[in-house]
């Protein structure tokens, strides 16, 4: 039997309902903040991610799904959305003299070791904001993510915040960290041994080495920031205070991607059950990325939230997800084509409707009613067909009424 690829999942039943609920929650929520939806391709030129995400990063080094297409082009399934959205922003000249705000929702692909909360195809919801550099905007974007999670019923959250300063600061600091960690080389985990040359900062938030005393005592980036970056960071924090978002400064937070500058943040759930996969959201400012991808010098920032992790939290917390109710179940007792016309009319008038195609016993049919739990049951047998009426049963009061077929839609309009 053919099975699903390793690290992927089938969503059905409760999980699928929660997924769809989150998707529509997202669309409604983003309207409050006046964001536009953007949809970019699932695969892009491989070079976009090399330049956009960065060659030294974990994602590009070992997590991308690369393939050569039949036209001999190097393609990569998107491991994240930012690079693609920035490419689209530039290619379609979406710049304005004001702010431009996008949100997305879709699959991302990373060749990771599958484990709880870590998949090879997963879903991200996120935002990208272009054109404005203002610390209060950073605070707003962080609070947008925080309130988004709160609105879904996830409250026990921690916002971790750091500043990476400008590009020069990052470079100087990177060198310092590299020198410091070189001394400890033999104790580093295999992954971090590789990271030391290309991406030493990532060692600071390694899930293994980051926990060790020596690594924890590494030089702190806050000691290297310029005056401007420090005062920018202070304002971001002031903004968060005003917006009522609790946060914690975390000097080890560097994020996995190359393009970040100044503000970086993560939102972590305190639920123990999530283990190491407890980061629900990660993001930050990327002021040099648009230019790096050959666009105009435009500041930007954004974040991404992992939807499967949200689903896991909602299930763990037993958050109630409203279920779509079925309006009508049509019980066909005579197999007359009239039944299907009634069903079609009901749906055409906007009532959700299920009909029993099976030739089940009466007991079996009432079992289906229990399963679907409709507001009304429309029963059509031979008498009903002859007399052009239906027997309508209110599934709450259990009362039965006979209603002429010509009056059925009006009757339901008034009662449902
Ligand atoms: P981690 O440190 O856990 O690997 P990351 O820094 O690689 O996370 P981001 O690139 O910031 O993660 O992605 C944003 C969010 O997407 C994460 O906070 C997480 O919720 C989710 N995410 C990332 N990778 C995966 C994955 N392989 N499976 C499921 N969700 C993921
Ligand atoms: Mg990762």
Topology at a glance:
Blueprint (H helix, E strand, L loop, with lengths): L12 H20 L3 E2 L5 E3 H7 L5 H6 L1 E4 L5 E4 L4 H10 L8 E10 L11 E10 L4 H17 L5 E7 L3 H16 L7 H9 L2 H4 L8 H4 L10 H17 L3 E3 L11 E9 L9 E7 L3 H4 L7 E7 H10 L11 E5 L4 H12 L4 E3 L6 H11 L3 E5 L1 H6 L1 E6 L5 E5 H11 L1
Parallel strand pairs: 1-5, 7-8, 12-13, 12-14
Antiparallel strand pairs: 2-4, 3-4, 5-6, 6-11, 7-9, 9-10, 10-11, 14-15, 15-16
Helix pairs in contact: 1-12, 5-10
Bound molecules: adenosine-5'-triphosphate (ATP) and magnesium ion.
Describe the fold and architecture.
It is a single chain. The protein is of the alpha+beta class and 416 residues long. It has two domains: 13-166 and 226-317, 2-Layer Sandwich (BirA Bifunctional Protein, domain 2); 328-415, Rossmann fold (3-Layer(aba) Sandwich). It has helices spanning 13-32, 46-52, 58-63, 82-91, 135-151, 167-182, 190-198, 201-204, 213-216, 227-243, 289-292, 307-316, 337-348, 362-372, 382-387, 405-415, and strands at 36-37, 43-45, 65-68, 74-77, 100-109, 121-130, 157-163, 247-249, 261-269, 279-285, 300-306, 328-332, 353-355, 376-380, 389-394, 400-404. The strands form three sheets. An eight-stranded mixed beta sheet has the order 1-5-6-11-10-9-7-8, sandwiched between helices. A five-stranded mixed beta sheet has the order 13-12-14-15-16, with helices on both faces. A hairpin with a 5-residue loop joins strand 3 and strand 4. Helix 5 runs parallel beside helix 10 (227-243). Bound molecules: adenosine-5'-triphosphate and magnesium ion (MG). Adenosine-5'-triphosphate (ATP) is lined by residues 80, 110, 112, 117-119, 122, 124, 256, 279-282, 304, 306, 308-309. Residues 58, 256 line the site of magnesium ion.
């Amino acid at each position: 039997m053919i099975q699903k690829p390793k690290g992927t999942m089938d969503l059905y039943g409760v999980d699928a309902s929660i997924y769809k609920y989150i998707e529509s929650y997202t669309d409604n929520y983003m309207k409050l903040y006046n964001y536009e939806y953007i949809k970019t391709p699932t695969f892009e030129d491989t070079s976009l991610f090399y330049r956009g995400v960065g060659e030294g990063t974990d994602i590009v080094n070992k997590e991308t799904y690369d393939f050569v297409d039949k036209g001999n082009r190097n393609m990569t399934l998107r491991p994240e959305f930012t690079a693609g959205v920035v490419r689209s922003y530039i290619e379609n000249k979406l710049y304005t003299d004001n702010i431009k705000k996008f949100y997305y929702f879709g699959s991302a692909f990373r060749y990771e070791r599958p484990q709880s909360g870590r998949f090879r195809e997963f879903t991200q919801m996120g935002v990208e904001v272009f054109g404005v550099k203002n610390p209060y905007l950073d605070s707003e974007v962080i609070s947008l993510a925080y309130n988004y999670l709160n609105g879904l019923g996830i409250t026990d959250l921690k916002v971790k915040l750091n500043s990476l300063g400008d590009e020069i600061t990052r470079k100087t600091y990177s060198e310092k960290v590299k020198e410091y960690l070189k001394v400890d080389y033999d104790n580093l985990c295999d992954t971090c041994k590789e990271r030391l040359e290309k991406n030493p900062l990532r060692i600071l938030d390694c899930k293994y080495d980051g926990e060790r005393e020596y690594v924890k005592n590494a030089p702190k980036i806050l000691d290297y920031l310029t005056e401007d970056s420090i005062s920018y960071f202070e304002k971001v924090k002031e903004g968060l205070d005003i917006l009522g978002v609790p946060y914690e400064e975390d000097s080890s937070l560097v994020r996995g991607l190359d393009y970040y500058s100044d503000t970086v943040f993560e939102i972590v759930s305190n639920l123990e059950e999530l283990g190491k996969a407890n980061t629900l959201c990660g993001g930050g400012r990327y002021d040099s990325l648009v230019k790096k991808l050959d666009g105009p010098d435009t500041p930007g920032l954004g974040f991404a939230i992992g939807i499967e992790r949200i689903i896991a939290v909602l299930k763990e917390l037993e958050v109630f997800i409203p279920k779509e109710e079925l309006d009508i179940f049509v019980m066909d007792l005579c197999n007359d084509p009239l039944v299907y016309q009634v069903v079609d009319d009901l749906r055409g008038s906007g009532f959700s409707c299920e009909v029993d195609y099976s030739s089940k016993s009466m007991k079996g049919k009432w079992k289906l009613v229990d399963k679907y739990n409709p507001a009304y049951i429309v029963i059509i047998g031979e008498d009903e067909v002859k007399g052009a009426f239906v027997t309508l049963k209110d599934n709450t009061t259990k009362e039965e009424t006979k209603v002429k077929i010509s009056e059925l839609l009006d009757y339901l309009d008034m009662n449902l």
